[in-house]
Prior knowledge:
This protein has one domain (about 1-179): 3-Layer(aba) Sandwich (Rossmann fold). It contains nine helices and five strands. The chain has helices spanning about 15-25, 35-40, 40-45, 50-75, 85-95, 110-120, 130-135, 155-165, 170-179, and strands at about 1-5, 30, 75-80, 100-110, 145. The chain has a five-stranded parallel beta sheet with strand order 2-3-1-4-5, with helices on both faces.
Amino acid sequence: MILFLNGTSSSGKSSIAAALLEELDTPFFHLAVDAFGAMRAVERTLELDGPAQQDLLRRTRAGFHHAVAGMASAGNDVVMDHVLSEPWRLQDCLDVFQGLDVVLIGVHCPPDELERRERARGDRVPGAAAMQLQSVHQHGLYDFEVDTSTNGPQECARAIKEFLRRPPAERAFEVLRRR
């Protein structure tokens, strides 16, 4: 099973993922897109011109999708945190995760709180999360949704765990795949 947490930067995905690892009854791996980006040689990436840098970032994200699929295909349960800020990312996940059990979870947070979190973190480009809001949830369909401005990571994780006890007849990924 892949628990796919989708939301903007600073929306709380990683905090929810950590809480899920504690809350869920079986072992899950947390795979985060940020962790894959951090594996890359940052200095070399910054030396690339615009198109070459964009190509490298796209390959990194596509590789991340394949890594998640590989872990799940090998029988591992995965909590994935990602930002579907470009349409190709969702389409690639729909293709790569074919035949896998994916629970798509929307992680929401209002713009003012996102901005506050970005300032508090200090490691994010101010305004990046607000810009992502326009595209991240554009596909408009989830199996389950949480709001991290009204619930902390533990409450969100418990709500997700409870949702998993009563899954829908059809997953959002299957519906999106047919669109």
